[in-house]
Amino acid sequence: MKALVIANWKMNPQTLKEAKALFDATRKSAEKARGVTLVVAVPAVFLRELRARYRGRSIRFAAQDCSASALGAHTGELSLPQLKDAGASHVIIGHSERRAAGETDEGVRKKVRAALDARFTPIVCVGEPERDASGGHFNFVRTQLRGGFAGVDPKELSRVVVAYEPVWAIGKETPPPPHDIHEMAVFIRKSLVATHGEAAMSVRIIYGGSTNEHNVEGILTEGDVVGVLPGHVSIDPQRFRVLLQRAANC
Ligand code: PGA
Questions:
Q1: Which long-range contacts (CB under 8 A, 24 or more apart) does 102-106 make?
Q2: Is 95 one of the catalytic residues?
Q3: Ligand 1 pocket, Cβ-based, cut-off 6 angstroms
Q4: To test the ligand 1 pocket, which listed residue (170, 228, 236) has its Cβ within 8 A of the most ligand atoms?
């Protein structure tokens, strides 16, 4: 199976001109990394323009968040129909930076439901703020999964991506060792099997937080995940090119 790479540009870059240059570099790197399925989560304001300048079919576009409502009085929000019209097929939901700004498990649940109804692929982020020796991080992630997946029918799980993103590893260069990622991936799958039955075996689990060109192979080969969600490395064209090449060889 091809490795799934979700490039999370976050709130970068500052201008459309820079976004076009970054996208062109990303596209060239993706063309040379055929063993990868690439999704770029660009700021929504650049979506339509970047989608329009891309004629290939191997790169997909994601929004970084969405409203759970389809339209109406929600100042400052973007609906899934609007994001689809602008070119997105995937949407990140519950990123820790959104959770830090007030997103709740209930909010995640509503958005995941809305994304599935709108035929989007939801990328649902879960992850603990810190680790302790007593294993509290497992309970933390289980609570996020129970909340976020409460409205998902088991049959729909094959359309969902879960991104394990330990908050303490985000924006750095040191992810947890692959063994710990593997352990959490198994835990996530077991938790979803407990709530949704065997259909949860079909959910795709990826890893994000300090993913870079040096650690991507270890994560993909030993972490029991089918993809990665790089943030800051995805806006550095040289580093991201190497990351994609290495992910393609896994
Ligand atoms: P990072 O970010 O790769 O910069 O750690 C990942 C994320 O926050 O999604």
A1: 104/147, 105/143, 105/144, 105/146, 105/147, 105/148, 106/147
A2: yes
A3: 8, 165, 170-171, 208-211, 229-233
A4: 170
User: Helix (H, G, I), strand (E, B), or coil: what is residue 78?
Assistant: coil
Distance of CA 140 to the CA centre of its chain: 19
Beta strands in the chain, from DSSP E residues, in sequence order: 3-8, 36-41, 59-63, 90-93, 121-126, 161-164, 204-207, 227-228
Residue pLDDT tens, the chain, 250 long: 899 999 999 999 999 999 999 999 999 999 999 999 999 999 999 999 999 989 888 899 999 999 999 999 999 999 999 999 999 999 999 999 999 999 999 999 999 999 999 999 999 999 999 998 899 999 999 999 999 999 999 999 999 999 999 999 999 999 999 999 999 999 999 999 999 999 999 999 999 999 999 999 999 999 999 999 999 999 999 999 999 999 999 9
182 is catalytic: no
Among all chains, which residue has been given the structure tokens 């407990």?
Answer: 194
Supply 130's token pair: 């810190």
The preferred substitution site among 5, 6, 9, 10 for testing ligand 1, maximizing ligand atoms within 8 Å of CB, is: 10
Backbone angles phi, psi at 68, to 5 degrees: -80, -10
